[in-house]
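Interim report, section 4.2 (structural modelling).
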Amino acid sequence: MSGRVWTRERLIAVLPAALLLAVVVALPIARVVFLSFTRTELEHGVTLHPAGFEPFVRLWQDGRWWTSLGNTAVFTGSSLVAEMVLGVAIALLLQRRFRGRGVLRALVMLPWALPTAVMALAWAWIFNDSFGVANDLLQRLGILHGPLAWLGHRGTAMAAMVIADVWKTTPFVALIVLAGLQSIPEQVIEAARIDGLGAWQRFRRVTLPLVAPSLIVALAFRMVQAYGAFDLVYVMTGGGPGGSTETVSLYAFQNYFRYLDFGYGSAIAVQGALIAIVLVLIVVRLARGAGEPA
Amino acid sequence: MNRVGRAPVTFVVAAALLLGAGCRPLPGDAQAGGAHLAVLMQPGERPFWLPVAEVFERDHPGVHVDLVEGPQSTDLRENLYTASLLAGDPSFDLVYMDVTWTSKFAAAGWLRSLDDAFDADARAALLPAALEAGIYRGHLYRVPVRTDVGVLYYRKDWLDGAGLAPPHTFDELATIARRLQKPPERWGFVWQGKQYEGLICDFLEVLHGEGGFWIDPATLEVGLDRPEAIAALRFLAGTRAGPDPISPPGVTTYQEEESRRLFQDGRAVFLRNWPYVWRLSQREDSPLRGRVGVVPMVHAKGRPSAGTLGGWGLGISAFSRHPDLALAFIRHTTTLESQRLLCEPTGYAPSLRAAYSDPALRAANPFLDDLLEIHAGAVPRPIVPRYALASDILQRRLSAALAGAMPPAAALRAAARETRLMLGDAAVAKR
Amino acid sequence: MSRVPATARAGRERGGKSAAFSRGVWLVLAVGLVLAWSLGPALWQALTALKPDAQITRTPTVYLPHPPTLDHIRQLFERLPFGTYLANSAWISAWATLLCIACAAPAAAALARMPGGGRMRVLLGLLFVSLFPPILLLFPLYEGVRALGWINQPLALILPYAALNLPLAVWVLESAFRRLPREMDEAARIDGLSATARLRRIHLPLAMPSVVTAAILVFIFSWNEFMLALTFMTRQGSKTVTAGIASVSGASLYEIPWGQLSAAIVVATLPLIVLVLLFERRIAAGLTRGAIKG
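Predicted structure of the assembly:
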């Protein structure tokens, strides 16, 4: 056996995967970065012209960009908080032994397997102002005293979107946390119980820190996914009302296909991606630091 | 010793197979024989095009006209056309276009020029304002099939009952509205205030009625921060906010149908909308039958009335495989027979001049004469390639002002600044 | 993992019958809530799809259709080429899955036997690749597809789907392959079997459950993808189910036939629901193994 890590055999084994990723991911990223330094003109056909940092200067002064970034931050933050809390709760529930647990687990996973774009339509129907179930239920429960035009006002439209997103992705978080929970040895929990710690304290001091690594993994994945969310916004609200739910992805998309401004759309996408990656790295580092067990 | 094995060979063979599988048409993509003409259109209008297509197919045996149903939302259909045309895809031979799409599609090089196909005589047969909307940089790209202009509907019975004549100016409208309304069961003035293209249409009418303008296509000058524009927005905002509103607060969530239904249900005195409302309000079973009048949109004293120009027309895709057939179809849609088939059951305004004196159409739509006159003064939206961006900028600011988030003056100043920035890019490009 | 005898635990844990009862009640409540939350929206769509139009637009909301009707489902297939959409989705997802696994398996097998440092670097690199928001890749991929003349061709989606799901597939397969006993591998190698033969005869058969898991996950993600499908497939006959339905959304209530749309949503999601219910355990295992790295 050769002492080399990358033997010829291994190289050929990873070649197909590497090629695929090079063509579908690496090359396009290089291209989109290139495009972000161009200006697109719409006069005699669509033409590209080199523009240096001009698109990024324009971005900096663009109120709509900052709004979309803010919307994305609100959406991502709210979704993540709700998902983490709900996900942990559901995982705790699924950890208990009871009859039919397997069936429950299967059914809990259902939302995650359904296409976001298709379910976005379903959610738009649920939040419909005249005939939606949400209004009906809330009115029957006495919480609302008249129909609410969910998708017609800024705050409620965002709330509706967050609810739809949380519904879809909580199973993912729950499963990861569940696996983390199940890998905690029984003795550790028992020891804590013997020590006289109550349920909540057991959870906070023992369970949570041990589950933290899986939570962080889930957090990182979900952060990027929520940040790049396109399907939900495009189909459910279209960025409305008044651009109050327009995310970075949607703003980039509009520039590509509605305004035919490829260069600027690319600048938006690139800037957005940079921010996302930096944020994820920061958050993961912070979370790791905070989660270091005592 | 071959450590790797037969893998690479297998892989290449598999890749070839995959390419074969990937390049064949999908299971769902079977196409019948004969020439196909495809066009994407809105589901609500499509049924009325079926007879038009049938006649064409009868006159051109072997040709099939594919009326593809798209989403109801105009913007979504524009996106679908864009994705297809940007890719140079010949899926759609004909492009069924709103008035505002011409500049973008033509500038991008997606449409064939129709200059040679439509000579002066053919052009004279169509309404000039409607035809203008299909011309970009002096070349014809879109032939209007049906046109639209904003008008003001009113409850003749209520005005007559109070001995009032229909209004000409903004002030007269407000006065009559306040006198006859009984909020919240009955509102004075209902229009389209939701953040979408319709809001631009409504605003433009008030803007031009005040003597202002949005963008001058020749000089690219922006008129949004002038006193006339601010007065226009103040009027609209004032209909709904302020001490004495004449419009329901929900007007900022209305598109055409919502506002029409309010009027149809007898809950509004005045309605600003498109000509199609007439036919629906005068149906046999309609409680509004015989009770509705139509006048040109109101304006400031001393200014001319302005109705926004709308309408739909056909262009030929630059990538169509059957441009001659497509052209034949366009000619077919502007014949009197086709115009009748399309406009009689719907109340749409035809683009063919001769249609306005056709007895059948006049019977179906008695105020065709008025429409012709109003149409002559129709205000087009500015023809700039990035119209969608200009519209989005203005929509946002108007919506913010109407919601009370920004005072009208500040909103319009911001809109003017952003629009100048956007046009400035274009001006730089013109070198 | 030793266990304290259940009875002893039970005695200590439950403070008598009443506490056990209240705990049981909480459990049932929790399970009920979770079920309602997870299944509610999808169930509501199914109910709407079976309701006659008059009952759909009745307020207050009518919950159960009486009598249920199959009209919407029938009209759906008349109005939209739904069978076509389903066939296209199945074709594209199947080929994408095949290609993805075909590329991921050899790479995973090679990685599984690689010494620690290099392996982690590659795996983390793959993770990094999956962190880019898809909007970043959309336009360059669109340009590429356009240049190759692949608009409306299935390959336009098959290749990207295979590539974008590679990281997940490699992670799942790699951890499964690593669990296989090294000795078998070594023995086969000494016997002169090539890498391909080893893959075919040892890795794949023994790790088949994980291969199936990876395949199901890739299939689901490919089926659910929206952004690329929306952009690359412009012709009715070429669309996938996700892009096909979602692009029929309208602007206001009066323009959307909610009954038909609900029927569309149900039909579009039914294959996935079946898939998930059948393979729930595998999916859960694959997701969690992919995320809980060592």
